[in-house]
Write a structure and sequence with these properties.
The complex is a heterodimer of chains A (about 120) and B (about 110). Chain A is mostly beta strands. Chain A contains no helices and 11 strands. Chain B is globular, with a radius of gyration of 13 Å. Classes of the chains: A mainly beta (about 120), B mainly beta (about 110).
Chain lengths: ~120, ~110
């Protein structure tokens, strides 16, 4: 069964450093998403991406965050200057259709980011 | 606007007994509804989905859910719990261009 692949599975970084989280969505999917889950809290939407541009973003997705699809297969989330409160599990997801109407959303296994 | 409420933060059952995880939604339009499961240190796995077809939806691992519009509910059930069902379960709602919204999650504990 097709999978969404995220790398790395764990990342430890120092406060103020830049990190890039990588995702390889399912190849025929057109819609891409990033979510995060702070330990013990709910899964929160960050951003959605379609046709090489951001389609929606939440209040969490401020200027320190950016996304891009650099080569047609990878989908990356960059955090420019990490803060302690960015420590969370970050999930990438993709869907074939808008709102996942046909087959739902496929999520990756997540990247656990720890900012020290 | 849309929202989803998972009524129980924890549910504890004995192995072999039925499971009921409750979810209520709010959506201005007919929603798409999903249940995802997250095992410890794992990603989110789709259990089942409702997208305006049959109201009783069967998923993987013996789980099913019934969409009840009059009650705005989409509760997840399983006739007989297994130890391997112990995990975090998320109810998710989306509709049209709305981004999927997650519930807070329900932790299912299964006792031997």
């Amino acid at each position: 069964e097709p999978e969404v692949t995220q790398t790395p599975s764990h990342q430890v970084t120092q406060m103020g450093q830049e990190v890039i989280l990588r995702c390889v969505p399912i190849s025929n999917h057109l819609y891409f998403y990033w979510y995060r889950q702070i330990l013990g809290q709910k899964v929160e939407f960050l951003v959605s991406f379609y046709n090489n541009e951001i389609s929606e973003k939440s209040e969490i997705f401020d200027d320190q965050f950016s996304v891009e699809r650099p080569d047609g297969s990878n989908f990356t989330l960059k955090i420019r200057s990490t803060k302690l409160e960015d420590s969370a599990m970050y999930f990438c997801a993709s869907s074939e259709s808008r709102a996942g109407a046909n087959y739902g959303y496929t999520f990756g296994s997540g990247t656990r980011l720890t900012v020290v | 606007a849309q929202s989803v409420t998972q009524l129980d933060s924890h549910v504890s059952v004995s192995e072999g007994t039925p499971v009921l995880l409750r979810c209520n939604y709010s959506s201005s339009y007919s929603p798409s509804l999903f249940w995802y499961v997250q095992h410890p240190n794992k990603g989110l796995q789709l259990l089942l989905k409702y997208t305006s077809a049959a109201t009783l939806v069967k998923g993987i691992n013996g789980f099913e859910a019934e969409f009840k519009k009059s009650e705005t509910s989409f509760h997840l059930t399983k006739p007989s719990a297994h130890m391997s069902d112990a995990a975090e379960y998320f109810c998710v709602v989306s509709r049209g261009s709305y981004i999927p919204t997650f519930g807070r999650g329900t932790s299912l504990i299964v006792h031997p």
